[in-house]
């Protein structure tokens, strides 16, 4: 089945050229020196429309479908997981805002998000609320602000908020009521780009083994005032539903991140085994090596088929939580295995931190955990199977 239209193919070509010409030359530096993604690259990504692939054209996005998101994501993460992941933040937050936000909120923020003029982050996870997303404790209490307007005073701690320092907006899940699910609301927190808003909002960086280029933070809110007009949708208690409404596109995008990383690792291994000689011949001539390559390629192609199946359904407006869960589960575990096999085929050279394949291996450790762990995906899949039986 052909799922890529001429427009998809043109977008893939443009993104691949951008990734190879602009991202690949700095990918190793971002990783080894743990630098943040530079501003000039962000500007070039915005010029290409990458922050608004699926967002409406009327707000400055490309107005394309979720298949296009997959195409773009795979090409970017093939050379850098961090760069490929960056666009998901704007697309994910923009999707939620476009679907659930008020007209005033869309008019104020959506064009900036779609064009990359405003960069976003999401703050949902807390020290005691990971997979149990509804267990959040961060409170948002409605009050009159110091300027006399209606505000929410936000107090609590968020964890694993990636790109929080550079983001202009942080979509923050807060508790506004006692009901576990119905007491959750989402607020759009404005902040200075490149910093925080002390003492009411501070951030502590979390060092990570991989995924360099974007920093993750623990955020501390201390009665930070957020305008009541920034309550997503204008109605309290809708935050959990909004979160769930964004998971399909998020998990499909995540699956394509896994596929891109696996493809990058596989291609690095393929190049290496063709060049590396032992016993007077390229190691690609040894059956054990060839079988590994065959398995890696097969697993990547299988994951891509699952991801496109989910993307096509979601693009058609068909419920795709089962397919998104399948794609995310299979692709994330596949990428972890393929990255290890790629490192293994490099031998000791792959274990060197400055080896490109080592970056793929370190980055792959996040994949079965992020955007819902593998076991959470299995639970989602099983729940649908049993409900449909």
TrEMBL record:
Cofactor(s) required for function per UniProt: FAD
Pfam families linked: Acyl-CoA_dh_1, Acyl-CoA_dh_M, Acyl-CoA_dh_N
Domain Acyl-CoA dehydrogenase/oxidase N-terminal: 5-116
Domain Acyl-CoA oxidase/dehydrogenase middle: 122-223
Signal peptide positions (record): none
GO molecular function (one): flavin adenine dinucleotide binding
InterPro entries reported for this sequence: Acyl-CoA_Oxase/DH_mid-dom, Acyl-CoA_Oxase/DH_mid-dom_sf, AcylCo_DH-like_C, AcylCo_DH/oxidase_C, AcylCoA_DH/ox_N, AcylCoA_DH/ox_N_sf, AcylCoA_DH/oxidase_NM_dom_sf
Lyase as UniProt keyword: no
Domain Acyl-CoA dehydrogenase/oxidase C-terminal as annotated: residue spans: 237-386
Domain of life of the native organism: Bacteria
Keywords on record: FAD, Flavoprotein, Oxidoreductase
Family: Belongs to the acyl-CoA dehydrogenase family.
Record protein name field: Alkylation response protein AidB-like acyl-CoA dehydrogenase
């Amino acid at each position: 089945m052909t799922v890529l239209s001429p427009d998809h193919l043109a977008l893939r070509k443009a993104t691949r050229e951008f990734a190879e010409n602009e991202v690949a030359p700095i990918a190793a530096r971002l990783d080894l020196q743990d630098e943040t993604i530079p501003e000039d690259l962000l500007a070039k990504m915005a010029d290409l429309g990458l922050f608004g692939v699926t967002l409406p054209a009327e707000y400055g996005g490309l107005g394309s479908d979720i298949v296009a998101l997959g195409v773009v994501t795979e090409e970017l993460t093939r050379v850098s997981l961090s760069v490929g992941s960056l666009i998901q933040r704007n697309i994910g937050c923009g999707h939620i805002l476009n679907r659930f936000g008020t007209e005033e909120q869309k008019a104020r923020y959506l064009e900036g998000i779609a064009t990359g003029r405003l960069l976003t982050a999401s703050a949902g996870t807390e020290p005691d609320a990971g997979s149990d997303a509804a267990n959040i404790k961060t409170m948002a209490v409605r009050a009159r602000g110091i300027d006399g307007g209606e505000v929410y005073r936000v107090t609590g701690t968020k964890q694993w908020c990636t790109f929080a320092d550079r983001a202009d907006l942080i979509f923050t899940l807060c508790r506004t009521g006692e009901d576990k699910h119905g007491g959750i609301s989402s607020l759009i927190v404005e902040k200075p780009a490149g910093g925080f808003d002390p003492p009411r909002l501070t951030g502590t960086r979390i060092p990570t083994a991989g995924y360099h280029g974007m920093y993750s933070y623990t955020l501390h809110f201390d009665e930070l005032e957020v305008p009541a007009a920034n309550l997503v949708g204008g109605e309290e208690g809708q935050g959990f539903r909004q979160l769930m409404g964004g998971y399909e596109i998020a998990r499909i995008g995540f699956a394509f991140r896994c596929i891109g990383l696996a493809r990058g690792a596989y291609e690095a291994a393929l190049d290496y085994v063709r060049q590396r000689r032992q016993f007077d011949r390229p190691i690609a001539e040894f059956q054990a090596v060839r079988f590994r390559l065959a398995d890696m390629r097969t697993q990547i192609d299988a994951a891509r088929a699952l991801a496109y199946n989910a993307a096509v359904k979601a693009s058609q407006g068909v419920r795709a939580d089962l397919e998104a869960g399948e794609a995310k589960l299979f692709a994330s575990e596949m990428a972890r295995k393929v990255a290890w096999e790629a490192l293994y085929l490099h031998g000791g050279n792959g274990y060197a931190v400055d080896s490109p394949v080592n970056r793929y291996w370190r980055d792959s450790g996040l994949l079965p955990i992020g955007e819902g762990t593998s076991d959470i995906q299995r639970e989602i899949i099983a729940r649908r199977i049993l409900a449909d039986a």
